[in-house]
Design goal:
By secondary structure, this protein is an alpha+beta fold. It contains seven helices and 17 strands. A six-stranded mixed sheet has the order 3-1-2-4-5-6, with helices on one face. Strand 7 and strand 8 form a beta hairpin.
Length: 281
């Protein structure tokens, strides 16, 4: 199978059906089973099931352990493939974010782990929005196009009690049913989201470009880029794209606000979707 992004791919040769099923479960539409894809892959990795677990043989003669269970090995494999694909495209801005689109316009949802990105993906998808990403937001800083990177999204299930609020990692998860976007979409706005379990109402406010850049830096996944290049690209995006902070308790309320912001009858303080810079592409 192939882990594919744009024109690049990593080939995974997996004979074990349990591991293949685990990969399909978390890889989502990023996986492509076709064997006749054009062009050489960035890498080809074969996986063996050994008595002590799963291992990767990169061709060097030394096996790399991937994990004892199929779930552990699938997570390790997908992480390696994603990092390889991201490193290949250092022309893009990579952010820890969910991205959804509607009518050719995209909205990016940035927030720390447990902020509710996947829950908002679920809420927006129920209203016909298309899914581009849940963890890895890929943005062309020149054209402001958001590119699909559709790893399977999972949302955390709420449970009663303060422990679940304090530690999101302790919550169970379920897959989110989405319609995957097949084409890039123009980035219209970025929401810096915070889940507040005791918030009395939804609060949404504009950020200055400087505030936006600082917040986006904290969500940056551009490890291989020089910092000055990364900051310059983030400044370009924040200057041309609306950046807002949103504090919420109810995901449906925030999803409704986002939908209104992109609707023809949007409120007076809503953003105006940006256009690509002249000559960008």
């Amino acid at each position: 199978m192939n882990v594919r992004f744009d024109r690049d791919r990593v080939v995974l040769r997996v004979a074990d059906e349990g591991l293949a099923a685990a990969l399909r479960g978390i890889g989502g539409a990023l996986l492509d089973a076709r064997e006749d894809m054009a062009g050489p892959p960035l890498a080809t990795w074969s996986v063996a099931r050994l008595p002590e677990g799963y291992a990767l043989d990169p061709g060097s003669g030394a096996s790399k352990p991937l994990g004892h269970s199929a779930a552990e090995a699938a997570d390790a494999l997908l992480t390696m493939a994603v990092r390889t694909l991201m490193a290949r495209r250092d022309d893009l801005l990579w952010l820890h974010a969910a991205v959804m689109s509607h009518d050719g316009l995209a909205v990016m949802l940035c927030g720390k782990r447990g902020a509710g990105k996947s829950t908002l993906v679920h809420a927006l998808s129920r209203h016909g929005w298309e899914y581009l990403s849940d963890e890895f937001g890929a943005i062309d800083p020149q054209s402001l196009q958001a590119l699909p990177f559709p790893i399977a999204p999972f949302r955390r299930l709420p449970t009663a009690g303060p422990a679940s609020e304090a530690d999101p990692e302790m919550l169970g998860k379920e897959a989110v049913d989405v319609t995957v976007a097949n084409t890039p979409a123009l980035l219209a706005a970025i929401y810096l989201i915070t889940y507040e379990s005791r918030a009395s109402r939804l609060e949404v406010g504009r950020c200055s470009p400087a505030e936006g850049v600082l917040a986006l830096l904290s969500n940056s996944l551009n490890d291989g880029q020089p910092r000055d290049v990364e900051v310059a690209r983030l400044c370009e995006v924040a200057a041309r794209c609306e950046v807002r902070r949103a504090s919420y308790r109810d995901a449906e309320s925030l999803a409704d606000r986002i939908r209104k912001d992109l609707s023809p009858g949007r409120p007076d303080d809503a953003f105006v979707p940006v256009a690509p810079a002249p000559g960008a592409g």
